[in-house]
Structures are given as structure tokens and as C-alpha cells.
Amino acid sequence: MFHRVFAYGSLAGDGAARPCVLRDHRRGWGVAMDNRRTIPGYKFYVDPASGERPAVYVTFLCIWPEPGASVDGVLLEVDDAGLAVLDRRERNYDRRDVSPFIDGDSAGPVWAYLASAAGRERFAAGRAAGAAVISAEYLARVPEADPHDLPVRSLLRRDVGA
Q1: Contact 52, 44 (CB under 8 A)
Q2: Model-level pTM greater than 0.70?
């Protein structure tokens, strides 16, 4: 079975896709991972100069409902296995059916990854501590995203085995 996924950030560059618009949602910086924690099967970041793991909250783009707003993105098609991979990868998000908000599409469910409560809490904690940063590598994948007042830092991603 194939699933359609609305991609609006780093996922948007992951394969063939069709442009579309998600209505009544906004995109911005709003979820984070705590780089001090090691989570099996996930990732952490190191400073490229020192190799040390900085005590920061690495911030990512997310979407949330907001009447009247819209988000440009693309529709990806994935099979069951691909959807399971995305669910593991997108652990700062909750997968939701957003098909009623997709312009010009009525052919069944469209999934999107919206900011999870835990991801938003980590972002808020990072902001409060002055430790919320954006990875320069991530920002390069979404060059149209304005970092606003969040610092951009050169970080190297390290994947953690299961």
C-alpha cells in the first residue's frame, strides 16, 4: 500500500514529489532534540573542530495549525515500510491526517508530521536556557527558512545504533 506524506522541510528534498499547499497551518522553528541525551536508533551532534558533544538543543522546523496561514510543500509517496522509517526518523513529531487541508487533492489520506508536545517542550527548554541552535547542515537543506534570532552552528551529525 502507498501513503502520501506532506513534506515541508528537510523531507521535501527526499525523492520525487508533487508541489502542493497545506492550508490553515504555519511553519516555523518549534521542536528540538536534547543533544545531551543518547537515544538508541537516533542521532546526536558534535562540534566539528573539537569533536565534543555540545550541551545544546538542536532545533528543527515544524508545522502547527493556524487558521488563515498556509505552508508550501510537496506530496511524497511512500510504501508501508517507508512510512515506518519516517515514523522512526520523525520522533519529534506526531503523524496526523491533514487531507482536509491539502489544496486540490481529495484522493485519500495525506499524512504530515506536526510538532509533538515533547518536541515543543524541548524547544521551549532550549530557548529558556539560551541553548537552542540550528545545525548549519540542516539549514542548508531548507535554505528558504529564516533562522530569525536562533543561532546557526556548525555541527556534525552522528547516528546512534539501535
Answers
A1: no
A2: yes
Q: How far apart are CA 77 and CA 75, in angstroms?
A: 7
Q: How far is CA 119 from CA 13, 33, 65, 124, in A?
A: 22, 7, 16, 9
Flag whether pLDDT at 14 surpasses 70. Answer: no
- In CATH terms, the superfamily for domain 2-159 is Gamma-glutamyl cyclotransferase-like (3.10.490.10)
Long-range contacts of 107-111 (CB under 8 A, 24+ apart): 107/4, 108/4, 109/3, 109/4, 110/4, 110/5, 110/6, 110/75, 111/3, 111/4, 111/5, 111/6, 111/83
